[in-house]
Amino acid sequence: MVEIKVSKDSKDILEYANAAIKHRLYVNSWSILRILKKVVQGNGVVNPPTIALAYTFDNIPVGICILRAGELHTFVRKLFRKGGIGKALVKSLVKPHDNPPCVFGGIKGSDIFYRKCFRKENWTHVMWNSGVEWRI
């Protein structure tokens, strides 16, 4: 069981970014780490994204989802994958009436993950970083 916390508030975002860095909720050299570092450098107030963090019952962050400028970035610790945490994080930030976000291919299976997140919505496509239009 996890609790998902979502915020656009700069104080919360700074706290979430520091927690995500401390608990390594990223892959080195990928965009999530760069975004988190920018949040910390900007003290949470310079171009702040919306961040959702998933915490375990003992208050350990195990997943993160970041929505910034129409781009969606998601990471869940390996031990906690395939349990619905990633999908819950995405759904906490992206609502059915929102414009579809741009998502980025990452680890093997991330394309399947995003398809499962968005297949029941009325969205016609999601743009991948390769520039290829993916129709659902």
> How would a crystallographer describe the biggest sheet?
5 strands, mixed
Strand content: 25-35%
Shape: globular
Name the structural class.
alpha+beta
Multimeric organization: single chain
Low-confidence stretches: 122-136
In DSSP terms, counting alpha (H) and pi (I) runs of 4 or more, how many helices?
Answer: 4
With strands numbered from the N-terminus, the spatial order across the biggest sheet is: 1-2-3-4-5
- Radius of gyration equals 14 Å
- Kindly, what is the distance between the CA atoms of the first and last residues, rounded to a whole number of angstroms? 30 Å
Order of helices and strands: EHHEEEHEHEE
Average pLDDT taken over every residue: 83
Kindly describe this structure.
The strands form 2 sheets. A 5-stranded mixed sheet has the order 1-2-3-4-5, with helices on both faces. Helices cover 31% and strands 26% of the residues. α1 packs across α2 and α3 crosses α4. The C terminus is likely disordered. By secondary structure, it is of the alpha+beta class. The radius of gyration is 14 Å and the shape is globular.
Structure, briefly:
The protein is of the alpha+beta class and 136 residues long.
Task: Please give a handful of descriptors for the protein shown.
single chain; 136 residues; alpha+beta; five-stranded mixed sheet; two-stranded antiparallel sheet; 4 helices; 31% helix; 26% strand; globular; disordered C terminus
